[in-house]
Design goal:
This protein has 173 residues and is an alpha/beta fold. The chain is built from nine helices and five strands. It has a single domain, classed as P-loop containing nucleotide triphosphate hydrolases (Rossmann fold, 3-Layer(aba) Sandwich). The structure holds shikimate-3-phosphate.
Length: 173
């Protein structure tokens, strides 16, 4: 397969399947998989909840920006991005200029199910119930996620089917 795009950035809310889809993409075509959260954890030598509690969200966002910039200089990467990557206009500009942004989306009901019992996403654990946090974040973030180049609704699709949809998009079909 001809690799038309430089990098493919898989973006969208927590629990939409970004990591599994980016990994499936790299299995199906010649892109190299990377998970930005994993890269952050390696650099900080802490888990995501530890980074949030010890350093704060703003430090996490700085690390996120650094790893994104690093990846944007590479070629043919299938990048699983953290759910907050699009909150920064600078991050969006970096992704636009170095590849294509494909957003995965799912209904709140699907997200409640997929994120139920999740312990490693600090933004869902703070204050209100996970469901209330999900509702609030979805409402706050739609304006940012809508800046993606394409959106795939994943509620009724398997990981493999979503990866095939991504491949259709990057092949222009
Ligand atoms: C976040 C999403 C998480 C992780 C961090 C913050 C967010 O990644 O980057 O907990 O702001 O939505 P996933 O979307 O992979 O869960």
């Amino acid at each position: 397969m001809r690799l038309i795009y430089n990098n493919i950035y898989i973006v969208g809310f927590m629990g939409t399947g970004k990591t599994s889809v980016a990994r499936a993409l790299s299995d199906k075509c010649g892109y190299n998989f990377i998970d930005l959260d994993e890269a952050i954890v390696n650099i900080a030598d802490m888990t995501i909840p530890e980074i949030f509690s010890k350093l704060g969200e703003s430090e996490f966002r700085k690390l996120e920006k650094t790893v994104l910039l690093d990846v944007s200089a590479k070629k043919h990467m299938a990048v699983s991005c953290g759910g907050g990557i699009m909150l920064s206009a600078e991050n969006i500009a970096v992704m636009k200029s170095s590849g294509i942004m494909i957003r995965l989306n799912a209904s709140a009901t699907t997200l409640y199910k997929r994120l139920d019992g999740c312990r490693n996403r600090p933004l869902l654990m703070s204050g209100a119930s996970p469901q209330e946090n999900i509702n609030r974040l979805i409402a706050e973030r739609e304006i940012y996620y809508s800046k993606a180049d394409y959106t795939i609704i994943t509620d009724d699709l398997s990981i493999d089917e979503v990866a095939c949809e991504v491949i259709k998009i990057i092949n222009g079909k």
